[in-house]
């Protein structure tokens, strides 16, 4: 078996190593390709004007002038002036008329473009690479010598007012984002729209535009950028020649960015004539150079973009996209991360039917809260790949590269290389995303802007209340919960639809989902209570694993409540998260035969260990409810909180009764969000761990035989002495499936009445065997750090074999044997007493990868047969002597 383990381990390592090498090879090749991209060269002229370029093998080039000027540098009265100049820039200069300018540009096949934003203005030209010098001269003439006559200003005014009307009527997305900035940054310059109010447009004169240009169009505030078949040295000469005369000093104080202030608020414009509601929700983000900017971009990519025309439907990777497609929440949505020099807006924009506003908004809130706590590594990896793809696609061609150079040099003073951008994206982890989401999203009042039929959009205060309820869920304490399932024969009854068993499964499903969704750090486990109590699933945050085990549970025997509670307690004591609070949720739908005093005694112990217990009692067993009330009262003590009793009468809907209970809602009513294996003996899949499966099966068989022998002797002794046999308690006769130690402790209690500490020690042993964790005593603890994987597993097998062979009352002898036993274990070394060879052969035949006809196995079984025959003859001889002495 050791050789099989080595082989499987070697194959697994080879496979993982090969996959790792392939991924590493791809990543290395990708980074190498990015590092080979042409570098962006940046130089600064004596005047302060910056020149930046990237040489790209292309016959086409883009050159542009980028200026620190935009709506953010305007005041209330001058708002709209920057955009006004954009419309006048190509109307002619002091050297060229408008017609001459247009003919000259068209004769070269070039294209001029101008754009104005909130913090930057750009004038760009696309042309053949050989025409770059001529286009630099034209752009320099446009910004230095604009004509700005009254006739041009009048025509531009009419054009701008017409464009504003068109935007208001047709481009509602832009309208919503203007409203979003207006309400989010109200009272600051960043609330200014690019267009400006109509009153300002009608009042702006040529002198106003000229004064704005003379104030802001200074060399230190400008960047000449180019991309294509362009040389940096040639571009510098062109800048010196055509832009060298631009002033570098200011007549008064140099324009500075004014401070901004984000205000959580809303602005809605109701217009029921529109077919769709257009809504944007955002929180304050970070500046473009902030260290959190990349993690916020990944978070935005994780929410994603979706349109009803997209394929995929419910198979989309984004959870919000899946919900939107499945429930028809919206027509489209897009997550955005707008960054300015010192602040930003992070949020989502969506268009939906009027009746879906509330549902869509609450789904957005849920997804945002999930970002704060529950985002997974896999989701973040997907989002990072999507972000890389989008960024690289946006830099396709000289025009996109030129615009990126201009923006970055204005904001950062340099352009970040692509391989550095890729590295920063790759360094973002799921924990980084959760951290930035907690800082920027969690417990932050958002800004909301909406246009259209928005009657059903929740009121802002209702939105805040719902957000706070989500926060309360997330603020719940860390908790590990064991759910105990009553699978006794009473669960076959049909007084709860469709049966008690299935109704109870719905309740368990609800509890598990509630616990994990309330806090992703929470863990939940599952065990059954009937007859041979079994740990189906150890503590995990994967609810799917628990539900898959729950599906296989069937009614079987009588409830074994006391043992189940003790084992659940032990599972919680051995939880990984020691900062987690402990809770047991017990479903009971069978009459409990325990004395109230026994349960009260157990309640005191659980209270001392700070374990809360919730009991869901159903089936109208009145005596149960009285006993459980005393049990819960002892647990709660003077505080009266922490543990709960929920009684579900016949005729009630199980899930509805639970939803309204403190188990789901919490104490204040603000709630409301290793694997065992059923189907495998002892919760262990023999395909995954054949050694442990064999060890547990053999150990249990030995335990069963020993208990039968002890019971037989106890009965014989009692008959001879004329006393009743010990251990008349029906519950104490049940063995814990998969927990040999628990069965042994029960037997010890029947035979000699072991003390509570000894019983707890044996229950710990039972838990260790059921979960595959063998816990040696301190004196026998080996140095696991210096042991190989094979040696550790061999040691675990040794422990389970020895514990099954030795009496539990001889710990000193066991420690000595554990110290002296060598670490190498093979089939030939396993000496099993009290197990028939036929049974062992049947065990071996069912284990995958084990050949029962091998020489080693036959020798071991043969040796076992001899030992078994010898011990049987000795036992028979001893029994005959005992009978003779009694006679």
TrEMBL record:
Its main location: mitochondrion. Residues 703-713, 868-887 have a biased composition (Basic and acidic residues). It is found in: Mitochondrion. This is 26S proteasome non-ATPase regulatory subunit 4. It comes from Anopheles christyi. GO terms for cellular component: mitochondrion; proteasome complex. GO terms for molecular function: metal ion binding; metalloendopeptidase activity. PANTHER family: GH01077P (PTHR11851:SF149), METALLOPROTEASE (PTHR11851). SUPFAM superfamilies: LuxS/MPP-like metallohydrolase, vWA-like. Residues 480-663 form the VWFA domain. Residues 703-759, 801-827, 851-887 are annotated as: Disordered. InterPro entries: Metalloenz_LuxS/M16, MPP/UQCRC_Complex, Pept_M16_N, Peptidase_M16_C, PSMD4_RAZUL-like, UIM_dom, VWF_A, vWFA_dom_sf. Gene3D superfamilies: 1.10.287.3990, 6.10.300.40, Metalloenzyme, LuxS/M16 peptidase-like, von Willebrand factor, type A domain.
